[in-house]
Write a structure and sequence with these properties.
Layout: E1 4-14, H1 39-42, H2 53-65, E2 69-70, E3 73-74, E4 76-80, E5 90-94, E6 100-109, E7 113-126, E8 130-132, E9 141-143, E10 150-156, H3 163-179, E11 192-201, E12 211-214, H4 219-238, E13 247-251, E14 256-259, E15 272-273, E16 280-281, H5 284-293, H6 298-307, H7 313-319, H8 323-334, H9 339-357, H10 364-375, H11 381-393, H12 398-405, H13 413-426, H14 428-435, H15 441-452, H16 459-471
Bound molecules: zinc ion.
Zinc ion binds near residues 20, 23, 25, 41 and 148.
């Protein structure tokens, strides 16, 4: 009998604000330790928090993107615990009255096809600081730059059934939030973190005891960590043992999970409403405005690219992976290029620079102009790719670059006739064989004319002239 794996994910994303959740300190990444701090985020006595309206707006957009019910009244609560990187001795979060509940996420599961799973809740909170164990030998340093950074925590229902499915869920979740403009969702910069709960059971049984896995720094490692934890639980139970509730940390180097030193067994955070913050009240007009400003989301954009633009499914997947790619593609189409040609340029030449620098090197109008030159035969596709590489290095008019590179195709009939005559004169034997019935020699002559022209002859213009001269 097989084991069924049950996985639920808790994802923390940093809301894309310039300042912190309850004070005006910047949220910029990579600053010198303890420079983005003030009395509020340091928890100094007498300092009072003021909620960041932009963080509330972004959290609401995120909740709307998942189709959650937004609660007109939610409450900021204090989650009390002691840790060196938490200067106030509590984290401001939301507990029994969160911003939003009851959403869904639809994505393609590697095992089960298109799948819709539940989003339990989305609530707002602030981040803690950071304990740095590797800066000062033998000591732990504390950096409070992150303390107070605005977060949305997105808790998913335990609807996922494999580590690969968990990874696909994360890809879709990230895509949705990036499209909605809620978060940059960069695991490297710490703006997206994942905690995973996993249990195993016999199909049809009630849920087994779950464990929590932390410290995974990429979606690939979330999958690896969950594979490892599933194997550990199966071995444990099949060996006659039982799973105990524990928090584990993933070691990417070894691919193994191991229990964290347990903080306290049963957490009692003694949540209570923060007396410094009134309930968060969102009126219907404001909520309607947020719904109206929600941009086109990935599913709608995919559907539009497939039906209205007639692109193949593979192209649609690549072009809609990030809103920046889709926007760039659409700008090329808007500049007059047909959708499939624009897709080929973006996926072929464009993504090369995007994957390295995060931006496209050539302006959409330039790509459109280049595509038009290929379409009307001014340059070959091969030559156009050389022009594109030049454009990536220095912005210029594609025609000027093509002229400088000497790749403008010659369509002038007089010039073509001259090259053809020279080629036929130089190859009397082949001419005789062609006239004797070896029709396939036409390819040989075209090649010779291209060679004689230095690659500049327009291949489409050569054949009729060849046939005229050979026929005579
Ligand atoms: Zn501050």
């Amino acid at each position: 009998m097989t084991w069924e794996t049950v996985i639920g994910l808790e994802v923390h994303v940093q809301l894309a604000t310039r300042s912190k959740m309850f004070c005006g300190c910047p949220t910029s990444y990579g600053e010198a330790p303890n420079t983005n701090v003030c009395p509020v985020c340091l928890g100094l006595p007498g300092a009072l928090p003021v909620p960041n309206a932009e963080a509330i707006r972004l959290g609401t957009l995120g909740a709307l993107a998942f189709g959650c019910s937004i609660h007109p009244v939610s409450v900021f609560a204090r989650k009390n615990y002691f840790y060196p990187d938490l200067p106030k001795g509590y984290q401001i979060s939301q507990f029994d009255k969160p911003l939003a509940t009851g959403g869904t996420l639809t994505f393609e599961s590697p095992e089960r096809g298109m799948l819709t799973v539940g989003i339990t809740r989305l609530h707002l909170e602030e981040d803690a600081g950071k304990s740095l164990h590797d800066r000062v030998p033998g000591q732990t340093a504390v950096d409070l730059n992150r303390a107070g950074t605005p977060l949305a925590e997105i808790v998913g229902d335990p609807d996922l059934r494999s580590p690969g499915e968990a990874r696909a869920y994360l890809v879709a979740l990230r895509q949705l939030l990036v499209y909605a403009g809620v978060s940059e969702c960069s695991m490297e910069e710490g703006s997206l973190r994942v905690d995973a709960n996993l249990s195993i059971r016999r199909p049809g049984d009630p849920l087994g005891t779950k464990t929590e896995v932390k410290n995974m720094n990429s979606f690939a490692n979330v999958e690896r960590a969950l594979e490892s934890e599933r194997a550990r639980q199966v071995a444990l139970v099949e060996g006659g043992g039982s799973v105990t509730q524990v928090t584990l940390t993933f070691n990417a180097a070894t691919g193994e999970v191991k229990p964290l030193r347990s903080k306290e067994d049963a957490h009692d955070y003694r949540y209570f409403p923060d007396p410094d913050l009134p309930p968060l009240v969102l009126d219907a007009t404001w909520l309607a405005e947020r719904s109206a400003e929600l941009p086109e989301l990935p599913a709608a954009r995919r559907a539009r690219f497939e039906s209205a633009l007639g692109l193949p499914a593979y192209d649609v997947g690549v072009l809609t992976a990030e809103p920046a790619i889709a926007d760039y593609f659409e700008a090329i189409v808007a500049a007059g290029t047909d959708p499939k040609t624009a897709a080929n340029w973006v996926m072929g030449e464009g993504l090369g620079s995007f994957s390295i620098t995060g931006s496209f090197a050539v302006m959409p109008a330039r790509v459109a102009a280049l595509a038009a030159m290929v379409a009307d035969g001014a340059v070959s596709l091969q030559a156009a790719k050389r022009v594109h590489a030049e454009l990536a290095a220095a912005d210029d008019n594609p025609r000027a670059i093509a002229e400088r590179l000497g790749v403008i195709q010659v369509r002038d009939e007089g010039a073509l006739e001259g090259w053809v005559a020279e080629v036929l004169a130089a190859h009397p034997d082949e001419v005789a064989r062609f006239r004797g019935g070896e029709a396939k020699l036409i390819g040989f002559f075209v090649g010779q004319v291209m060679k004689r022209s230095g690659g500049k002859a327009d291949p489409k213009g050569i054949q009729p002239i060849l046939r005229t001269q050979l026929g005579g």
